[in-house]
Design brief:
Layout (H helix, E strand, L loop, with lengths): L9 H13 L6 H13 L9 H14 L3 E5 L5 H9 L6 E6 L2 H13 L6 E5 L2 H7 L4 E6 L6 H10 L3 E10 L21 H18 L5 E6 L5 E6 L7
Parallel strand pairs: 1-2, 1-4, 2-3, 4-5
Antiparallel strand pairs: 5-7, 6-7
Helix pairs in contact: 3-4, 6-7
Bound molecules: S-adenosylmethionine.
S-adenosylmethionine binds next to helix 4, strand 2 and helix 6.
Family: Belongs to the class I-like SAM-binding methyltransferase superfamily. Cation-dependent O-methyltransferase family.
Protein name: S-adenosyl-L-methionine-dependent methyltransferase
GO biological process, one term: methylation
Length: 240
């Protein structure tokens, strides 16, 4: 196959998602309950990662064995719970950043309910500011907040060397539903959300275009989920 993405129809894409989910390590019952709780409680629940992404997070964390995880964009706490599950071996500290009072309350409730307060630390406030207060290194960093903030977040992470020498940054939604590739790339997107994703697409296209020119890092944009960019130090020894 010379291309990188199969041309699935919308309906087939849903079937493929379900097929992948059924053929992957399952998320825990707690995660499944929390996912369903979020889905039914919040009108903007599509901000939450999918169930299959939860499996991906658990798998990735078990594979990379981070000692510290940083997440920018907590929402209802689903991904933080997945990072927690994936780091039971390493007992990693999970630091998650969120500014919405409503979502801070929802996440805190979930973290208490599922007994993860021992390792999950939620830092409240705009990530543009809270990120600046962080010290030390993180082995796995998940960027999943406001899309017009990605460029600044990644610059800060690299400038402050918050990424450990062999760590990885994972940036979610870098396709902006396809609109970072082109404004005509998501005919299925409804008109209610299209303007929002169009502006995200512009910001993320700029982010994607500039990031690959940054000589400090190796960058890989993968056509999975809504586009995931992986970033690592080009030379972990010097992090020049
Ligand atoms: N990581 C979550 C998950 O996988 O379920 C989803 C995160 S959701 C896509 C993005 C979150 O980032 C929202 O809860 C939003 O309130 C938060 N957010 C947006 N802009 C932010 C900012 N400038 N500072 C902190 N949080 C922000």
């Amino acid at each position: 196959m010379l291309g990188s993405i199969l041309p699935f129809s919308e309906e087939t894409a849903d079937r493929v998602s379900e097929y992948c989910e059924n053929s992957s390590l399952p998320i825990t019952d707690a995660l499944a309950d929390h996912w369903e709780w979020t889905r039914t409680r919040f009108p903007d629940a599509d901000k939450m990662s999918s169930r299959l992404q939860g499996s991906w997070m658990i798998f990735t964390a078990r594979d990379r064995k981070p000692k510290r995880v940083l997440e920018i964009g907590c929402f209802s706490g689903y991904s933080a719970l997945a990072w927690y599950e994936g780091t039971r071996d390493t007992q990693a500290e999970i630091v998650t950043l969120e500014y919405s009072k409503k979502m801070i309350a929802a996440s805190r409730e979930a973290f208490k309910k599922y007994g993860v307060d021992d390792r999950v630390k939620l830092i409240e406030g705009p990530a543009e500011q809270t990120l600046q207060t962080l010290t030390g290194e993180f082995d796995l960093i998940f960027v999943d907040a406001n899309k017009d903030g990605y460029a600044g977040y990644v610059q800060t992470i690299l400038d402050k060397k918050l990424l450990s020498p062999n760590g990885i940054i994972l940036c979610d939604n870098v396709f902006a539903r396809g609109l970072s590739v082109g404004p005509d790339c998501a005919p299925w997107l409804n008109d209610h959300v299209r303007p929002y994703w169009l502006s995200c697409g512009q910001a993320l296209n700029e982010f994607n275009t500039n990031l690959v020119k940054d000589k400090r890092v190796d960058v890989l944009l993968l056509p999975v989920f809504d586009g995931v960019t992986q970033i690592r130090w080009r030379d972990p020894a010097t992090r020049a």
